[in-house]
Each structure stands twice: as C-alpha cells, then as structure tokens.
Amino acid sequence: MLPWLGEEEARAAAEAVASGWVAQGPRVAAFEAAFAERVGAAHAVAVSSCTTALHLALVALDVGPGDEVVVPSLSFIATANAVRYVGARPVFADVEEATGNVTVATVDAVRTPATKAVVAVHQGGVPADVAALRDACATWGAALVEDAACAIGSTVRGRSVGAGALLAAWSFHPRKLVTTGEGGMVTTDDEQWARRLRRLREHGMNASAAERHASSTPVLESYLEVGFNYRMTDIQAAVGLVQLGKLDAMVARRRELAARYDDLLQDVPGLRPVRDPAYGQGNFQSYWVLPEHGFPVDRDGLLAALADAGISARRGIMAAHLEPAYRDHPHAPLPVTERISRDSLILPLFHTMTAEQQDRVVAVLREQAKR
Predict the structure, then answer these.
(1) Residue range 101-108: average pLDDT?
(2) Residue 166, class by beta-carbon neighbours within 10 Å (0-12 exposed, 13-18 middle, 19+ buried)?
(3) Residues 179 and 44 in one domain
(4) Which cofactor does it need (predicted)?
(5) Where among 246, 275, 306 does a domain terminate?
C-alpha cells in the first residue's frame, strides 16, 4: 500500500501551520462534518487512531470487567486489545473463508450470557454482512460495533459501510485509502454518545479549546469524568479533507486494478483471489490471494519468490490468538482463521500502479504455479 499524497495535501498542511491553529480546532470540525456526510452518519468524532476509536466506542457502551466482547482473531491485534483496555474479556470468533469476516453463525458459536458487545471487522475493506449481524445482536441483547478501519469507500447493499451503525471506528493510517498519517474517527447516529465521545477524547473536559477560544467571555472548564488525550490535530484534519475529496477516484482506481488482477490470474491454477460478497462491494484496500491445497509453493515461498524479483508483498491478515500476547488466552477452535492467516498473501496494489508492475507480479505467481 502506497498512499496517494501530493502537493494539495502539502499545501493544506502548510496552511494549517501558517494559521497558527495546529491542535484540534476548526479543521478537525470540518473534517468530522465531511466524513459524517460521506459515510451517512449523523455524527463523527475525530480521534488519534482507530485503536483509540475502538476504545472509546467500548467506553461509551460501558463495557467493563466481567463483560465479554466477541471479536475476530483474524484482525490487527488492536481489535482485541481495545477490549482489554476496558477490562473486559475478548472472545475470539472464527470467520468465513470467502470474506475473512465474522458471521452470525461464527459469533453465535462462541457467545455466552456475558457477551455485552460484538466487534465486526470489515476485513481488508471487504464488507461484513452487518444487516444480519445487527438483527442477531438485537436478539441477543448485545451491542454491535463496526471496526471499519479498512473500509472507507466500501458499501453494503448500496450504502456506505458504517451507515446506520450503532458505533463504527475508522482508521487514517497510511495503509488506508484516506490517510492523515495517523488518526481515526468514531461515527454514530446517537447525539448523546457523540457528545460524550468528544469529552472523553479531551480528558473528560466539558468545553473544548476551540469552544473556549470562540467565546467572548472567559470559560472555566470542568472535567466531568476521567477521560483520555485522544485528539486529532488540525494539520492532520487538513490533509484528511483533501484525501476525502479524492476517495471516489481512489476506490475506482483500486477496483480497476483488482479487476485486472482477476483477469490476469484466471490462468494461474490454485490461487483464489478475494472477491466482493453478494451483498456489497469492497474498496480493495487489500488484494489478497489464498493458495488452494496442493499449490506447489507455500505462502512464505511465494513471498520469497516475489522478494527475489524485487516485489514487496505482505503476509495475509494476522491472527491475534497466535501472537505471544494472547498465546495463553483460552479460545474455541479457529480453523478458518488459522488457514487464512497461515496461507494468504497480500499483493501490491496502489493508486499509481502501472500495468507493467502488475504484469511483473503475476509473472512470478505464474512461474511458481508451474513448479
């Protein structure tokens, strides 16, 4: 993943610096409003990362010690870590092989009476079937949080991922389509939650620095609860506004490149590429392939062959339960998670990628398939 950044972002950041307002301020508010409109949410709250967004979402839900939260192990470790930040217990659910996402069935297999929330990850930009998950969670009495870190620009049944979500968390890390360097967002349709999230990101303060600055009379702030320093800067938000304006072009280009990969890989036997689910479209933040059983070279061998050809590819999505931090954490069997994590690899895909560069990638895969 190579971010699509240019002179427009550089100018926007420079203008923020020149304005003298570099901390959380008017550009953050503008970015929040534009982002909320883009994803179909009533409110957006900018924060310092998607990890802090997930943390605040769980705090807003009053998840804490004694509670369980069902999460996929097949996700960046932050998804599980956020549950531990609030003192709750992450419970790992398996995923379906086609999308890499949890389903009603995989969550139902591990939930218990202590399950207070479920975190559904739109993995690699492939949308999860949130309609089914929302209905199931309502029946179970559990809150559904959407980890949309990878999914800006993805859609479910014609609507943006995150539209109608109870709470959704987003990332602006450089590996995402829209980047602010570091940064994140929480979206919700609940005004009370949005108000509390804004307090929590700023040490529980009842009046932000921007509100104090705008007031014609002195404002003596108070701290209503223990909060956090999870703010986004105006420099980041200035870049984010430019990036958000490029989103349609980014998604269109990535889908064009993904379709070309599909065509080129049709005659490479034993490699199954990621596909759109029937209910939505992904943004192809990641284009991963899964070698079928019997493919002559394993995933690590493919990575080595690509590296020898000067091509940087990546292993597939990690499995948190296999990492040292969770090695002693009890969990149900997770065969699909372990299969995808062990065998999948992510191919290069970026906005300025050329046909010649794609051809080089596929030529290596085709050669390895004949071994």
Answers:
(1) 98
(2) buried
(3) yes
(4) pyridoxal 5'-phosphate
(5) 246
- pLDDT tens figures, 172-216: 999 999 999 999 999 999 999 999 999 999 999 887 766 666 655
pTM attached to this predicted model? 0.95
Same domain assignment for residues 260 and 194: no
27 in Cβ contact with 205 (< 8 Å): no
Which residues form the catalytic set?
A: 176
Are 205 and 293 members of one domain? Answer: no
Pair type for strands 159-160 and 155-156: antiparallel
**Residue 221: which pLDDT band, with cuts at 50, 70 and 90?**
confident
Residue 159 belongs to a domain with what CATH number?
A: 3.40.640.10
DSSP readout, 316-350?
Answer: ---BGGGSGGGTTS-----HHHHHHHHH-EEEP--
Q: Are residues 155 and 281 in the same domain?
A: no
Instruction: Find, among 23, 36, 3, the residue nearest to 238 by Cα.
Output: 23
User: Following CA atoms 81, 83, 88, 92 in sequence, which dihedral angle do they give, to the nearest 10 degrees?
Assistant: -80
CB 329 within 8 A of CB 321: yes
